[in-house]
Amino acid sequence: MSELGVLAHPSVFPWLGLILGLAVGSFLNVVIHRLPTMMERDWQEQCAELRGDARPATAPFDLARPRSRCPACGHAISALENIPLLSYALLRGRCSACAAPIGMRYPAIEALSGIAAMYCASRYGFGSAAFGAMLFTWALIAAGTIDLDTQLLPDAITLPLLWAGLIVNIGGTFVDLRSAVIGAVAGYLFLWSVYWLFKLATGKEGMGFGDFKLLAAIGAWTGWQVLPLVVLLSSFIGAVVGITLMVFAKRGRNVPIPFGPYLAAAGVVGLFWGPQVTRYYLTKVL
Q1: d(CA 167, CA 195)
Q2: pTM for the whole thing?
Q3: Which residue positions in the chain have pLDDT lower than 70?
């Protein structure tokens, strides 16, 4: 058996997916932490340019620079301190220099990314479907978490994800291309319509434009047939979470709740189980 054949074997590939997913999860933590700051800096530079001001002198800041550091003491994180899950366990969740606690989100994102990749590898086997599903899931993890933190859904994630969905489905990997194109258009137009109807009725903005783009991207991957499930499921989860926060956390009704995390969760369900759930509902419930 060739080397590629060994890696693609059903008993090996899922474990490779797990390792790859853990490594990508570590990178997603960087994206989640840095991308909103990069967006803010870009907006500030654009505003300065429009005002005719000189661009402020700032140190390079992107996904690669500067090197990751402890936010409490500035200790540069070494390669051995950056091994997914293992480093967190060995450090007991604390900085090696100042013993400041490291948030549980970091290993949680790594674990979620790894488990998701392992599931994709197990479900689809070695091929474009598995790697495509991994990419889709990782992008939704990053987008949903950023929206949860900042109520922003970066175009740097949603737009490439939309185009990637159309490209992946050129050969019918998940759905046929026609369904993918209609899904992208319908996903955007549906939430766009809801936004304007709500604004005309109340004078308030009920969601951000990033939500339109995210649902369009999900539609490009899953096809238009799954969009009703995605919308209903995300709305249900959002309503449950919102009511829970109001009752137990005493959160006011006027405090905005990001919709992106619920769209992301529903999108993953839609890709993996959408056709089965829709078919079951149409045949057993109706």
Answers
A1: 28
A2: 0.92
A3: 1-4, 54-57, 249-255, 282, 284-286
